[in-house]
Fold this protein.
Amino acid sequence: MSAVKKIPMRQCIGCGEMKSKKEMIRVLKTTEGDIVLDATGRKNGRGAYLCKNPDCLEKAMKSKGLERSLKTAVPEEVYENLAKEMGQFAEP
């Protein structure tokens, strides 16, 4: 018998959907307090997950889901940088 591999699931902080970890983008608060996108999903720090859809970032901004998940205030320029970076990962 072959073992069934467990697929890690994460919840999007924008839309609330559960998806596999590989389908999502991790937003990370580093130990220095910087907020960046973690494309690899392996960097150290507190993470929150977003779908690769820019609409989910908008929803997370409006509901302050990112601030709640990262347990810190997120400045407006960080949201602008995340929106630019997310454009690279956006699904066609």
